[in-house]
Design a protein that fits this description.
CATH class: Alpha Beta
Structural class: alpha/beta
Order of helices and strands: HHEHEHEEEHEHEEHEHEHHHHEEEHEEH
Number of helices: 14
Largest sheet: 11 strands, mixed
Strand order of the largest sheet: 1-3-2-6-8-7-14-15-11-9-10
CATH superfamily: Amidase signature (AS) domain
Radius of gyration: 21 Å
Helix content: 25-40%
Length: about 500
């Protein structure tokens, strides 16, 4: 099966617009207008809700809307701006929450038919922090089962589609969040990432996704102890992603691996001048689509023209090794957790979930956990060596330019003219879950011929979050994508 649809087929919805509708207002712009009282949180919310009503039936990015609760929160926020009370950092902003981020009293299904009646008893830490910061969770976004697929669809929720081209996928597993942002359903959204689940949807939807370094943003036990995982913000601009990252980050009593609070991301970064950036197109032997490579090189060239020093580097990795190392980890951690959760309900699972558990089980049978750790630390050392002398590394986010919305990719994926046995071999995100102390920011790099965006990853040294945001802001400045929106529902 191909990793893309035909390059000659026109997009189903058109490609770009310069709309300035309220539903596409950046979070930071909205906050400025709230403070000046030129815009009310009630007005913004109503614009977003109208957009959802008009467009979501075709995109299918949401599992639930909290309309009455959101309207009441918006009215309260409006009053706080009127009275000049102490203002919380997200006050009045609509935020779309990935369904895996639990809301007390609401369904927490993880996309599973068998768990569609399970109700969460508590808010996820990131939800608690968003609400404490004045954010309004007005909608929840779709995922594949267990957040373990390259596309976002499930027997429970159906197929989520890319607002730039409805035949294509927004990627997985935070595809609902990426699609919601691209379609104008929220200025901010939450994501999670164990192998690229925040960064891949960001690439395919022209949005920004941050995979925070392990421990920066708290999770929920027991998988909070999984050093591949991480929750993070998604947004339409770098500054907005930083705004939400600052709210989500910091030590939490429920996650003993969470890191102590640090200085917040500034939101006002210096230019690219003087930055030393390593460019790596293939991360070893990934077969990168020509459009993806061209857009990545265009980003590097733009940084160089803005005064950055860009040098191309190579890494000694292979996709076969990355696949073996990552699935050894999943085979000893996530796979068994999924099997425990689904025991007795196997007949209700999507085929991709069954395959993931089987692949993980086979990897664990052939490799000890220690074998995986040995390989992980070797790869981490190789990355550190290549990045020595550089401030950050940039590379493509996905080796393929697009994914079909309806395909499961159970028979692998085609890229660079070759067929790969497993779709994970097209994910250029996985190495940085193996090296998961590195912060990674995903930003748009351009458009593919099929009408959807492509993206690059900005990889920082361990826990150096501010630098990846500085590079991201520089890319945003030299290759601006603000006000470039999908036309679906226009």
């Amino acid at each position: 099966m191909s990793g893309t649809t035909s390059r000659t087929k026109p997009p189903a919805t058109g490609v770009r617009s310069t709309s300035t509708s309220l539903h596409y207002l950046a979070a930071s712009e909205a906050l400025d207008l709230f403070r000046s009282r030129d815009l009310s949180p009630v007005e913004l919310l109503e614009s977003v809700l109208q957009r959802i009503d008009a467009v979501n039936p075709r995109v299918n990015a949401l599992t639930e809307q909290l309309v009455d609760e959101a309207r009441e929160s918006a009215r309260v926020a409006e009053q706080q701006y009127r009275t000049g009370d102490v203002l919380a950092p997200l006050l009045g902003l609509p935020v779309a929450a990935k369904e895996k981020h639990s809301l007390a009293g609401h369904v927490l299904s993880n996309g599973l038919m068998a768990q569609r009646a399970v109700v969460a008893s508590a808010d996820h830490p990131v939800i608690s922090r968003i609400r404490s910061a004045g954010g309004i969770v007005h909608a929840r976004t779709t995922t594949p089962e267990f957040c373990c697929a390259t596309v976002t669809h499930s027997p429970l929720w159906g197929v989520t589609r890319n607002p730039f081209n409805l035949e294509l996928s927004p990627g997985g597993s935070s595809g609902g969040s990426g699609a919601a942002l691209a379609a104008g359903f929220a200025p901010l959204a939450t994501g999670s990432d164990i192998a690229g689940s925040t960064r891949l949807p960001a690439a395919f939807t022209g949005t920004v996704g941050f995979k925070a370094p392990y421990g920066r943003i708290p999770g929920v036990a027991p998988l909070s102890a999984d050093h591949f995982r991480g929750d993070g913000p998604m947004a339409r601009t770098v500054a907005d992603a930083a705004l939400l990252a600052n709210v989500m980050a910091g030590r939490h009593p429920g996650d003993h691996a969470s890191l102590a609070d640090t200085a917040p991301l500034s939101g006002a970064w210096a230019s690219a001048r003087g930055l030393r950036v390593a460019l790596c197109i293939r991360l070893g032997d990934y077969l990168v689509d020509s459009e993806v490579e061209a857009n990545t090189r265009a980003v590097a060239a733009a940084l160089q023209s803005a005064g950055a020093i860009v040098e191309e580097v190579e890494l000694p990795w292979t996709t076969a090794e990355i696949h073996r190392v990552s699935f050894t980890h999943f085979g000893h951690v996530l796979g068994p957790a999924m099997e425990d959760e689904t025991r007795g309900t196997e007949s209700q699972l999507a085929a991709y979930t069954v395959q993931f558990m089987a692949d993980a089980r086979a990897a664990a049978a052939g490799n000890r956990y220690l074998d995986g750790l040995s390989a992980e630390t070797r790869m981490q050392g190789e990355l550190a060596a290549v990045m020595t002398g550089f401030d950050a590394l940039i590379c493509p986010t996905s080796a393929v330019a697009a994914l079909s919305a309806d395909d499961h990719y159970l028979n692998g994926i085609t890229t660079g003219g070759e067929h790969l046995e497993h779709y994970w071999q097209a994910h250029m995100t996985v190495p940085f879950n193996i090296a998961n102390r590195c912060p990674v920011l995903a930003v748009p790099s351009g458009l593919a011929n099929c009408g959807i965006p492509t993206g690059v990853q900005i990889v920082g040294h361990p826990f150096d979050d501010d630098t990846v945001f500085r590079v991201g802001a520089a890319i945003e400045s030299v290759r601006p994508w603000a006000h470039h929106y999908a036309l679906v529902g226009n």
